[in-house]
Amino acid sequence: MAWKETTIAGKTGFEWSTARMRVGIVTECGPRIAFLGKPGGANLLFQDTEGRGRGDWRLMGGHRVWPTRPGADESENAYRPDNAPCEVTVEGDALTAVAPTDPLLRTCRGISVKPLGDGSLSVDNFITNAGDMLYSGGVWALTCTQPGEGRCYGIPLGDGSCWDCFRLVMFRTWGGGHTSRLDDPQIRFTEDMLLVTPRGIETKRMIEASRGIIAMDAPDEDTTFLKKAVFDRTARYPLGCNMAFYVGPDNFMVEMETIGPEVTLRPGETAHNVEQWLLTNHATGLDKARTLTDLFEG
Question: How much is the average pLDDT of 253-282?
Answer without folding.
Answer: 97
